[in-house]
Amino acid sequence: MFINREAELTQLENLYATGRAELFILYGRRRVGKTELLRAFCEGKPHIFFIATLSSDRDQLATFSQEIYRLTHTEVPEGFTFPSWEAALRALVELPGRPVVVLDEFTCLIGGNKAIPSILQKVWDETLRNSQVLLILCGSYIGMMEAEVMGYNAPLYGRRSGSLLLESLELPAVPAFFPNYTPAQQIEAWAVLGGMPYYLTAFSDQMDIFANIRRHILDVQGLLYPEPRLLLLEELREPRNYFSILRAIAQGRTRLNEIALGAGVGDSPVTARYLDLLQQMRLVYRSVPATESQPEKSKKGIYHIADPFLRFWFRYVHPYQSSLDLGMADGILAQRVRPTFDQFVGYAFEQAARAYIARLARKGSLPFLPERIGAWWDQSGEMDVVAASDNEKVLLVGECKWSANAVGSDVLEDLKSKAQTLLETGRWNSALYFLFAKSGFTPAVQEQAANEGIRLVTVEDCFVCPV
Q1: What separation in angstroms does the CA of 169 have from each of 191, 201, 275, 455, 457?
Q2: Do residue 341 and residue 363 come from a single domain?
Q3: Is 354 a domain residue?
Q4: 163, exposed or middle or buried, with CB in 10 Å at 0-12, 13-18, 19+?
Q5: Which of the four pLDDT bands, split at 50, 70 and 90, describes residue 120?
C-alpha cells in the first residue's frame, strides 16, 4: 500500500525533470517506506533498482553487473560480471535515455566494501557528473548514512543534488489504512503504531484495537512482536543497555538522572552517551518547555521515545516477555494494557494536538508565526500545547483531554490561569486558547468559546487542517 507521499514524489520528479546528472540521498528508519517510495517513482522510467544484501562483495558486484546488463539486453550471459565496482559504475554512462539508478540499502554495500564511496566519488567526478543518470543512494542506518555518505569528511561530500530524511506518516494519513474505524479508533491505532506504513498495514479495521494488539503484538507469533528487537539488534553493538534505557523512558523516567537510575547501565554521563546515539538514530528525542528561548542550553530537558510503536512495545511487551513467552497474552492485555490504555493514548493525543498546530502554522492559518511548538512545564504545573513567538509577543496555549466526559469550563479556566503565569513575565502580551477533546465540549464552553474566540478542536478536526 502506497499512501500520502506526494511531496516526496514531487521532489524526486523535479530532480528527474532537470535532465542532468543528479546524485540524491534518501535515508530513514527501516519500515518507513523508502523502497515503496522509490518503486513508485521509478514506475514507467528506465531504471535499475539494486537492493544490496549481506552477501559477499563479489556476489553484490555480480548482481549489480547483471542488473546493468539486463537494462540494455534481453538476456544476461550466465555468470556475467564486471571486473570491478569502478568498471560497473562507469558502465552507467552508457545507459540510454534518462535512467534512474537506485542503490538501495547502500550501507550494506559499504559494510562489504569500505572503498565503495571513494570509488563512486572518483567515477562521479570523472564521468557520471557529465551524464544523464539520476543516481539515488538509499539507506536505513541513519547515523551511517549521515557520517559515511553525507558527512563533511565523506568522499561523496559536496556531490549530492539533494537529500531527504524520510519521516513517518502524519496522523492525517491514518484513515486511509483504517477507513472502517471511527476517528477516535484511528487515533488509538496511531497511538499504538505511529506512522510507519509497515506497522499500519499489520492491523485490520475488521477487528477492534485490542484484538489487533493481542494478535499482532502480544502473541509471540505476531508479526510485530519481534520488530523492535530486530531493529535494535541490526543497528547496535550493545542492544541490552539500550533496551534498558528505552524501557526506563517508556515507564515514565524522562530526566537524565531518572533514566540512569532506572536503566542501571551506568552513571549519568555514561547514560548520556547512550542517549546521544539513540537521538542520532531518531529513536529518542529531548524536549524542553516551548517557552525556552535557547532550547539547546536549557537544563529542563526531558527524554521521550520518538516512535509510538516503540513506546508501546517497551511499555507493554518488553517488561512482560517472560509471561508472553509462556502464553499469557490474554492476561497481559486484560491486566496491563487495558487499565492504562486511555492514559497511553492521551499522551499520543497531546502529540497529535501539537502536530495539528504545526500544520496550521505551515499553512499560515494562525494569526502569528510561532518560533517554537511543544509543551510547557515547571514546578507549578504544565500545559499540553504551547506555541510561542518572542518576536510577535504572542502565545498559543492548549489543553488536551482524552476522556469519556465532555470538556467543561473548569478546564478552560485552569488553562487561562496557567497561561496568565506566563503572561505576567512580560515576554508575551497576549494568548490564544485551544481546547482539544475526545468527547466534545459542554454547552457552556461552546458558548464561551464563541464569545471569546477560543478554538475548540474535536478528534475529527485533528485529521484535517482548516485554512
Answers
A1: 13, 13, 24, 26, 21
A2: no
A3: no
A4: middle
A5: very high
